User: Fold this.
Amino acid sequence: GQQLNQSPQSMFIQEGEDVSMNCTSSSIFNTWLWYKQDPGEGPVLLIALYKAGELTSNGRLTAQFGITRKDSFLNISASIPSDVGIYFCAGQRQTSYDKVIFGPGTSLSVIP
Amino acid sequence: DVKVTQSSRYLVKRTGEKVFLECVQDMDHENMFWYRQDPGLGLRLIYFSYDVKMKEKGDIPEGYSVSREKKERFSLILESASTNQTSMYLCASSEETGGTFFGQGTRLTVV
Assistant:
């Protein structure tokens, strides 16, 4: 079946550093989504991307929809302790009836 | 803002009990989903529904059933709970073009 790969699997960074993570697939997607999950909570949608090459920001977060439509990137600038959590990417081929495929997640730890 | 609400944050049930997990969304979304999340296994789709009274099996439907009698409500049913169904359960709903929104999760423990 379809699979998404996320890297790195986990990151330990100093507060104030920038963070980069990516998501790759062997399949083409029409929509890329990035989520953050805090411990014991449900994932929260951070950014949605709908077009190849699209670059979208949400505060300190910036995500890009890869030109090949097989990858996406998430950057966090000037990390703070509350950025700690698991970041999931997700891809969707069609709209409406098509299932969303989730990556395994990148665990981010921020050292104050 | 989209709101997906799960009826319980924490549940403890006994083996063999019938368990109902309820989920309500307030954005008139067509699609609703139930996932379970386990360490090292990520999010796994149990069932989904794209319309009232419609349901489709996901990747791990065994031991579960669902009910969608109203558009805003999607229930997950464990007919006879077992210890291997101890997990975090996440309900979600989605709109026509991208953006799947999750509830806060129900942590179910079966003893």
